[in-house]
Write a structure and sequence with these properties.
Length: 72
């Protein structure tokens, strides 16, 4: 599988999905607002307000995503 990094430091404040490599070799996604992106870490705030920090070296893919759909 081929992954792409189309989001980065310029996307701070935008809604993104970040795919990261877990210590056991699996992958997991984070969806939310990009708080920061630098050489050491990437920060994402999820929809519950929880902030997640990931080492930049563990990020395998990232992209901007549209806003969540309106609730009915």
């Amino acid at each position: 599988m081929r992954y792409a990094l189309t989001a980065g430091p310029a996307d701070v404040g935008m809604r993104v999905v970040v795919r990261r490599r877990l210590p056991d070799g699996r992958y997991a996604d984070l969806l939310g607002e990009l708080l920061h992106w630098d050489e050491q870490s990437v920060g994402v705030r999820d929809r519950h307000g929880q902030e997640h920090t990931v080492r930049t070296s563990d990020v395998v893919a990232a992209k901007r995503v549209p806003p969540p759909p309106q609730r009915r």
